[in-house]
Design a protein that fits this description.
It is found in: Endoplasmic reticulum membrane. The chain is mostly beta strands and about 200 residues long. The protein has a single domain (about 35-190), classed as Immunoglobulin-like. About 10% of the residues lie in helices and about 30% in strands. The protein is built from three helices and nine strands. It has helices spanning about 105-115, 125, 185-190; strands at about 30-45, 50-55, 70-80, 85-90, 95-100, 145, 150-160, 180, 195. A five-stranded mixed sheet has the order 2-1-3-7-5, with no helix packed on it.
Length: about 200
């Protein structure tokens, strides 16, 4: 949003409508693939946090997420840390579907630290705990949502306009690409950010 400050007064004819736009609900059947996004925190020998990674990778590691422009995907965001992490996906709007507590958390985390593979670590056997309801004010289309520690949060991500289902009016595949990251500044500065490269 751009603000232009003028010296003289101007008439503002804008108003708040009685009803906001009602966007279409997500259609999970349209998801073209499922991804597992794991959040890690690393500590020093004295148990002080040193850095944070997504999927065990630094920001400088090669791109691993290549969503297709106009596609929809299911992401299971797995928070293996002790903190909330507000995830922000550039060019992706999403709806939070479920927040599921991870059972046998330490066992699952040890496996993830060792293998960094949610499927091989049997995520669906562990993501069977208590479901935390998504707050009413968080149930619409989002571009940031807090991922709870010890939970797998299922989100439906759309890489197109949600009001028209049209693709973007610009070439989203151009370099340098985009990112997804924790929206806490010192976390993203400590590498809790990954590149996102859209393709046709």
């Amino acid at each position: 949003m751009k603000f232009i400050i003028k010296e003289q007064r101007v008439h503002d004819s804008s108003y708040i409508p009685k009803r906001l736009i009602k966007y279409s609900p997500p259609k999970l059947s349209t998801a073209s693939r499922t991804r597992y996004i794991a959040m890690y925190e690393y500590t020093s020998p004295s148990d002080e946090p040193t850095h944070l990674f997504i999927n065990g990778l630094s920001f400088d590691a090669p791109v691993t997420e290549h969503p297709k422009v106009g596609s929809s995907e299911i992401w299971y965001v797995i928070n293996l840390t002790e903190d909330n992490h507000p995830l922000h996906v550039h060019l992706g709007l999403f709806v939070v579907r479920e927040q599921i507590k991870l059972l046998d958390f330490d066992k699952f985390k040890d496996c993830m630290v060792d293998m960094n593979d949610a499927v091989k670590c049997n995520i669906h056997k562990h993501a069977r705990g208590k479901k935390k309801p998504v707050p009413k004010h968080e149930r619409g289309w989002k571009n940031v949502f807090k991922m709870m520690p010890g939970y797998a949060t299922k989100i439906f991500v759309k890489f197109s306009y949600i009001h028209s289902n049209n693709s973007y009016p610009f070439d989203a595949t151009k370099e340098p690409g985009y990112v997804y990251h924790c929206h806490i500044l010192d976390h993203e500065d400590n590498v809790m950010m990954r590149p996102l490269k859209l393709v046709n």
